[in-house]
């Protein structure tokens, strides 16, 4: 439910909107790991989307990747070793 999430709202959500969820929102980066788990990055948070479509709540980047700055511009996962790579200008 990315479309209704709002980092500036005290509850982290905007009022509900009509239509499909998360397909009309913008993101900083999206990548997939070797287990086909999708990672979506926006601002200082990320979501995990399982292969069955289940979406996690937004989590702080620092919770998983200590020192990673917000608003990354691209992300990739190595198919050889599973390491994440992040890019920011």
TrEMBL record:
PROSITE patterns: HEMOPEXIN_2. Gene3D superfamilies: Hemopexin-like domain. It comes from the Eukaryota. Residues 1-10 have a biased composition (Polar residues). The gene is MMP28. Hemopexin repeats lie at residues 24-68. Residues 1-21 are annotated as: Disordered. Pfam families: Hemopexin. This is Matrix metallopeptidase 28.
């Amino acid at each position: 439910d990315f479309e209704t999430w709002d980092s500036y709202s005290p509850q982290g959500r905007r009022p509900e909107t009509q239509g499909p969820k998360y397909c009309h929102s913008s993101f900083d980066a999206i990548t997939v790991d070797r287990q086909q788990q999708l990672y979506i990055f926006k601002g200082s948070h990320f979501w995990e989307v399982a292969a069955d479509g289940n979406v996690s709540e937004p989590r702080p980047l620092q919770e998983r990747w200590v020192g990673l700055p917000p608003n990354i511009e691209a992300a990739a996962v190595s198919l050889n070793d599973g390491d994440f790579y992040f890019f920011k200008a």
